[in-house]
Amino acid sequence: MQVEPLGPERCDALLTFFAELPEGDLTFIKEEVTDPETVRSWATATTPGGRWVAVDGERVTGYVAVRPLPGWSDHVGEVRLVVAPSARGSGLGRQLARRALVEAVGAGLSKLVVEIVAEQGAALALFTDLGFTGEALLRDHIRDRSGELRDLMVLAHHVSETWAGMDTVGIADELGACAG
Ligand SMILES: CC(C)(COP(=O)(O)OP(=O)(O)OC[C@H]1O[C@@H](n2cnc3c(N)ncnc32)[C@H](O)[C@@H]1OP(=O)(O)O)[C@@H](O)C(=O)NCCC(=O)NCCS
Q1: pLDDT value at position 156?
Q2: 59 lines ligand 1 (CB under 6 A)
Q3: Where are the domains of the chain?
Q4: Residues 17/63, Cβ–Cβ less than 8 Å
Q5: Which positions fall inside the N-acetyltransferase domain (predicted)?
Q6: Which numbered atom of ligand 1 lies nearest the CA of 80?
Q7: Region at 91 (left for phi over 0; alpha for psi -120 to 50; beta for the rest)
Q8: Could you tell which of 95, 126, 155 is best to mutate to test the pocket of ligand 1, judged by most ligand atoms within 8 Å of the CB?
Q9: Which helix (DSSP H) or strand (DSSP E) does residue 44 occupy?
Q10: How many CB atoms lie within 10 A of CB 136?
Q11: Could you read off the pLDDT of 68-111 as tens digits, one per residue?
Q12: Which of 67, 111, 103 is nearest to 179 (CA)?
């Protein structure tokens, strides 16, 4: 499994990946991911932040993005991560999240946030292990596909504060390798 920056050659495979996701998972990606024009525009965008895909041959099996927030929060990046159901549980989510963290820190972002529906145990475990901590609980903040209200958690990673923590998970080494 290889992780690479999203380029135009992967757009069709990425569209297929999104089209095959269960509807509930699309909640985590706020953009219009089933619209070909939107996805193609990502591959050519020059906006800050980044998008990466995991590929297995011609297939896209995972997607992660870091989107800087606008205006006075442009030092903050929002992470969006999703792995194909058939590829879950083998470390790909963790690999993609680490890649996003390394690239975001390298790009100078000093805080990262991720929004997680309260029941998403796997996402919570994954981001907590990477040094994210709970920063807000927004009660009844989203409606799921059946119209039920669900809580949303905002986890945050303050880069400077958690630098020591990053050391323990080996990410500082990766950053050093990137800088070199
Ligand atoms: C969250 C998600 C990206 C995890 O992807 P993944 O490839 O399965 O993750 P990994 O295999 O790297 O697992 C990472 C950790 O999650 C936890 N985990 C994985 N599957 C789990 C499960 N079914 N139940 C509970 N915890 C689980 C484990 O702690 C695991 O660490 P370990 O391998 O050391 O035990 C994936 O479930 C997904 O796409 N979910 C829908 C979208 C979403 O929730 N996105 C997050 C918010 S943006």
Answers
A1: 97
A2: no
A3: 2-179
A4: yes
A5: 1-156
A6: 48
A7: left
A8: 126
A9: helix 36-44
A10: 12
A11: 999 999 999 999 999 999 999 999 999 999 999 999 988 889 99
A12: 103
Q: Are 93 and 126 in contact (CB under 8 A)?
A: yes
Distance CA 116, CA 127 (A): 10
CA-nearest residue, atom 22 of ligand 1: 122
Mutate to test the pocket of ligand 1, among 67, 83, 117, 144 (most ligand atoms within 8 A of CB): 83
pLDDT digits (tens, 9 = 90+) for 19-28: 999 887 877 6
Q: What CATH class has 2-179?
A: alpha beta
Three-state SS at 82: strand
For residue 150, how many other CB atoms are within 10 A of its CB?
16
CA distance 3 to 81: 13
115-172: pLDDT as tens digits: 998 788 899 999 999 999 999 999 999 887 678 898 999 999 998 765 555 554 566 6
Cα distances (angstroms) measured from residue 44 to each of 7, 66, 72, 74, 91: 7, 15, 25, 21, 29
